[in-house]
Write a structure and sequence with these properties.
Distance between the termini: 49 Å
CATH class of the largest domain: Alpha Beta
Strand content: 5-15%
Helix content: 40-55%
Number of domains: 2
Number of strands: 10
Number of helices: 11
Length: 263
């Protein structure tokens, strides 16, 4: 955002506007310092129940934020609304991440660690994440097949994750070929387009749209030859400490899909 931000040496009253970064703050040990979260910051569950909620990721209750008197607000370019972020920045220090790649996610963890005085713990987390993804890379490198995948995030209208998204980055790392890589962001697709492009695999995310088993059957009518799976959207789109769980999940998903593809 090309801004310079003055942040206290040791922030004591932090509001997080992004679920994955909220979870990261608690992982790094800021149980007391985080005073406000969004209604979508569901992890960890204990803190979700106990912390003040200031609205959603794109619509905030400014009166609640004022009452919490934050000395630092942490957000993300994609997750949050620019107009409201600019409004908050007039009164509070607002630090924003912009995450498209795996390296962006690691850099975010490092930067937040420095800002909140938890550099050593953040460094350890990065090392553990890199080790998990190294094991995944070793497994994927042994595979000779990159299934063509469509990753669906919404149903009516149907929307998919395309290039220039963190989800696409995770798909690539997991050894998939995004069949919508010629498009960007989150394009809408018609039933006819999906049928014509014939992906090998269609992944139905648990968020933001909560795909269920009934949708598997409906999508199967469009692409009868595709393997269709419900997947945990948090592990494809959250970019904090949840990355520790992502790499093993991707390997497990690939192994299961390969059995189905062979069948």
């Amino acid at each position: 955002m090309q801004r310079e931000i003055k942040i206290p040496n040791s922030p004591k009253r932090i509001i997080s506007l992004v679920p994955s970064q909220t979870e990261l703050l608690f992982y790094l040990g800021l149980e007391n310092e985080v005073v406000g979260i969004t209604k979508f910051c569901v992890h960890p569950q204990a803190q979700f129940k106990s912390k003040s909620r200031i609205g959603g990721t794109k619509k905030y209750h400014f009166d609640k934020i004022k009452n919490l008197q934050p000395d630092l607000i942490i957000g993300n370019k994609e997750e949050n609304d620019q107009t409201q972020i600019e409004q908050l920045a007039e009164e509070y220090p607002v630090w924003m991440s912009d995450i498209i790649t795996f390296e962006d996610a690691l850099d975010m963890i490092e930067q937040i660690g420095k800002i909140i005085g938890k550099e050593e713990r953040a460094t350890q987390l990065i090392e553990h994440i890199l080790l998990k993804f190294h094991h995944l890379h070793q497994y994927i490198s042994l595979q000779n097949y990159r299934p063509k995948v469509a990753y669906m995030i919404w149903y009516n209208p149907m929307m998919v994750a395309a290039r220039h998204t963190f989800i696409d980055e995770m798909l690539q790392i997991a050894g998939f070929q995004n069949i919508f890589e010629s498009q960007t962001r989150y394009p809408q697709v018609t039933r006819e387009e999906l049928s014509a492009i014939q992906p090998d695999v269609i992944l139905l995310s648990s968020e933001p749209f909560p795909f269920q088993e009934k949708h598997v059957n409906e999508i199967h009518d469009i692409c009868p030859n595709a393997v269709i799976e419900l997947v945990d959207g948090e592990l494809f789109s959250w970019y904090g400490n949840r990355l520790l769980l992502a790499a093993p999940y991707f390997e497990k998903t690939r192994r299961e899909l390969e059995i189905n593809l062979k069948d």
